[in-house]
Amino acid sequence: KLDVTWATDRAAMAELAAAYVCASLGDGLTTSLALPTGDTPIGMYECLAERRRRGEVSFRNAKLFNLDEYAGMSPENPRSYHAFMRRHFIDHIDVPSQQVRLLRGDAPDAAEECRAYDRAIAAAGGIDLAILGLGANGHIAFNEPGVPWDLDTHVVELDRRTRQAHRPNFPDEASVPRIGVTMGIRTLKAAKKVLLLCAGEGKREAMAALLAGREDHAWPVTSLLGHKGLSILAEEALKPC
Ligand code: GLP
Fold first, then answer.
1. Which stretches within 89-203 are classed as H helix?
2. Is 69 an active-site residue?
3. Residue 141: left (phi > 0), alpha (psi -120 to 50), or beta?
4. For the chain, what are the domain ranges?
5. CATH number given to 4-238
6. Does 137 participate in catalysis according to the annotation?
7. What is the Cα–Cα distance from 40 to 134, expressed in whole angstroms?
8. Which of 51, 74, 132, 203 has the largest CB neighbor count within 10 A?
9. Which residues line ligand 1 (CB under 6 A)?
10. What pLDDT digit, counting tens, does each position of 17-55 carry?
11. pLDDT per residue as tens digits for the range 183-231
């Protein structure tokens, strides 16, 4: 039985997600978090920053990782996920900088960066809570349809639908990245808890695949089915009629 919470709208979803994260951090067991980019989690980050300002939560003991990054992109590029994480979240909270490890898209040796990232995750004791968004094509992080489900951090060719979805963030089609670096499904499934955030009209098909409850390699999100710590938070607009 899937644990699905339907939020009336994006604002409610942001509050619920932030409350879930704060409760998790407060349990004394959750310290390492994997964090998503995209439009969906922005409200959650705002709520968390607001709760931090009010002194309701602290990230002093948190270890933060991001899920993915565009390959070849430097952290200084404002379009990078690195910059996104700083702008929307990390710059607004009290996490010590040595406890933040974001994937480097511009590492000279991408394979070595992936291995180093996996070592950092292992050194943190694995991921306690992975917060995920959902791609229109059913991807989680940059685990695209058809990718093997037994990978840790790896380099991946971005799917046509992913590149389409990212097109508005770039000046023209040619500049949309073709390659990404991402935590793999094995790492995500090994997380003690997973909070999956689903919002946006384009996610209807992916959501339906998930709710169908069958593992399907064409819809990477279905790899999470059977995860005991999976919680799904979705906007009500995506509820099947
Ligand atoms: C990107 C990221 C994913 C994210 C997805 C959804 O492709 N790589 O990690 O979940 O976008 O984005 P949005 O929340 O903007 O719909």
1. 110-123, 160-166, 185-190
2. no
3. left
4. 4-238
5. 3.40.50.1360
6. yes
7. 9
8. 132
9. 36-40, 67-68, 133-135, 141-142, 162, 200
10. 999 999 999 988 899 999 999 999 999 999 999 999 999
11. 999 999 999 999 999 999 999 999 999 999 999 999 999 999 999 999 9
